[in-house]
Amino acid sequence: MSGHSKWSTIKRQKGASDIKRGNLFTKLSNAITVAVRQGGGVTDPESNFKLRLVVDRARSANMPKDNIERAIERAHGGTEGAVEELIYEGFGPGGIAVMVEAITDNKQRTASEIKNVFEKNGGSLANPGSVSYLFKKKGIVVVSKNGASSDELLSKGIEAGVEDMEEEFERVIYYIDPQNFSQAKTTLEGEGLAVLSAEIIYEPTAFADQNQETQVQILKLIEKLEELSDVQKVYTNLA
């Protein structure tokens, strides 16, 4: 298992804005809607893995139980057809590759807002396929060490079929093939590990270095994109 810190890079890019977005519950409600639709209308998180991941995120964000249940009921009621999940691609300052996950009921509005943010922050919206080849989907499960040794955690990770493991203070980050994500997460939980978070991300196949000034500009672009109500997640290949 490798010792490089992919997690620190990913976390640095995705951390602070998650806390300060005032419309986080709206974003989570939309994600629940799409998860129910993509799960064939299944509203039980135990039978719909993508819904389970979103509900876990909602609970971690202290989203009230009533809000979660209303979002599931709304999706089950058939209104989810107006909402869809889209990927936008672009270039940030210094030519950094940017992937934007969005959920929207108005593609024209969302594309216009995202394009505007790119252009105001030194970037540009690009055509589909322009940067997606620089990323691959990857499952990430973060667990608490709870006093377990590195060897124990490595053994449990191998048993669950993870591809890579990284330690960070009192946490361990497992990297997992998305095709094996559901089973691996279930196995890790069955091993008694306390899962702090679990998600499927777009991981860069290679990271790009930039000077400090450009890094600040890129992080500002990420922050402004994540402030948009339709944007769920933003990924870059910034080192």
User: Strand portion, in percent?
Assistant: 15-25%
Distance between the termini: 20 Å
Percent range of helical residues: 40-55%
Which CATH class of the largest domain is shown?
Alpha Beta
CATH topology name of the largest domain, in short, is Alpha-Beta Plaits
Please specify the SSE layout and strand pairing:
Elements: H1 6-14, H2 16-20, H3 24-38, H4 49-60, H5 65-76, E1 84-91, E2 97-104, H6 107-120, E3 124-126, E4 135-144, H7 150-160, E5 164-168, E6 171-176, H8 181-190, E7 194-204, H9 212-226, E8 231-236
Antiparallel strand pairs: 1-2, 1-3, 2-8, 4-6, 4-7, 5-6
Helix pairs in contact: 3-4, 3-5, 7-8
Q: What does it look like?
A:
The protein has 239 residues and is of the alpha+beta class. The protein has three domains: 76 residues, Arc Repressor Mutant, subunit A (Orthogonal Bundle); 77 residues, Alpha-Beta Plaits, CATH 3.30.70; 71 residues, 2-Layer Sandwich (Alpha-Beta Plaits), CATH 3.30.70.980. The chain is 43% helix and 24% strand. The strands form two sheets. It has a four-stranded antiparallel β-sheet. It has a four-stranded antiparallel β-sheet with strand order 5-6-4-7, with helices on both faces. Strand 5 and strand 6 form a beta hairpin. The two termini are 20 Å apart. The model has no long low-confidence stretch (mean pLDDT 89).
